[in-house]
Amino acid sequence: MLMGVRHILKKYGVKPLIAGRAEYEMIEGNWQSQGMVILEFEDREHFERWYNSPEYQGILPLHLQATSGRLLLIKLDN
Question: E-strand spans in 1-78?
């Protein structure tokens, strides 16, 4: 995870579930990853507040330069 991101996550109430070189096993399909980050948000509004925050937008260019990662937003039905 990028330096300085943890305090931004904490400020916006984001819960990191997995961050870094998580071990995984592909059962079906093809997906190759050097690592992953999974974050839990209370709802979409909380995600948007965090993502659009000046703090995250300030480091986003660094993230985009440093990785070829993907961002996926998943809504779980409870």
Answer: 15-20, 36-40
* Rounded distance between C-alpha atoms, residue 56 and residue 22, angstroms: 23
pTM: 0.76
Q: 36-53: per-residue pLDDT in tens?
A: 888 999 999 999 999 999
- 73 CA to centre of own chain: 9
**Token representation of residue 34:** 């050097």
Both structure tokens of 16: 């990191």
Q: Strands 15-20 and 36-40, how do they pair?
A: antiparallel
Whole-angstrom distance, CA of residue 45 vs CA of residue 4: 22
Residue whose pair of structure tokens reads 């995984």 in the numeric block:
24
